[in-house]
Amino acid sequence: MSELRDRLRQRMLEAVRSRDRDTVVAIRAALGAMENAEAVALPAQPGPAVSLLGVGAAEAERHELRAAEEQMIVRAEIEDLRRAATTYAEAGLDDRARTASRGAEALAAALS
After folding, report:
1. How far apart are CA 10 and CA 25, in angstroms?
2. pLDDT in the model for residue 17
3. Domain residue spans in the chain?
4. Res 31: pLDDT
5. Given this model, what pLDDT does residue 55 score?
6. CA-to-CA separations, 54 to 1, 3, 7, 50, 58, in angstroms, rounded
7. How many whole angstroms separate alpha carbon 42 and alpha carbon 18?
8. What contacts 107, CB < 8 A, 6 or more positions away?
9. What is the 3-state secondary structure (H, E, C) of 37-106?
10. I need a surface site. Which of 3, 30, 58, 70 has the fewest CB within 10 A?
11. What is the pLDDT of residue 93?
12. Looking at residue 61, what is its pLDDT?
């Protein structure tokens, strides 16, 4: 497991213990985005060479992310949360804006 993922998981555990829901949600989303990026797409229509029958027949080795790719994903999550915070603030939804801002701050802290 990568250093960044270890750090995110540790911070998420701390956030769970301290009941910091905003941080937990942001970190879970970032970890989920990393896991989704590792998934290998199956062919849209399996041909005769690709049989999806039998245990493990559809298993594929996952793409292993490099550290730079993981950081890019977390940065994208931070940017999404910051944009959401701005949009919420402009709409007068201050609680949601604070939630998104806290999530962005938690992810940014994990990058440093």
Report:
1. 14
2. 98
3. 3-38+63-111
4. 96
5. 60
6. 30, 36, 38, 12, 8
7. 40
8. 26, 27, 30, 74, 77, 78, 81
9. HHCCCCCCCCCCCCCCCCCCCCCCCCCCCCHHHHHHHHHHHHHHHHHHHHHHHHCCCHHHHHHHHHHHHH
10. 3
11. 97
12. 75
Provide CB contacts within 8 A for 55, sequence distance 6+: none
Q: Give the three-class secondary structure for 112.
A: coil
* 90, two tokens: 């402009």
Q: Give the model's pLDDT for residue 91.
A: 97
Residue pair 65/38 in contact by the 8 Å Cβ criterion:
yes
| Predicted pLDDT at 54 | 58
Q: Domain 3-38+63-111 is in which class?
A: mainly alpha
Q: Which amino acid is at 19?
A: R
pLDDT of residue 112: 83
What residues have CB less than 8 Å from 34, skipping those under 6 apart? 5, 65, 70, 73, 74
C-alpha neighbours within 13 Å on the C-beta side of residue 9: 8
Task: Look at residue 62 in the predicted model and tell me its pLDDT.
Answer: 77
How far apart CA 20 and CA 26 sit, in angstroms, is 10
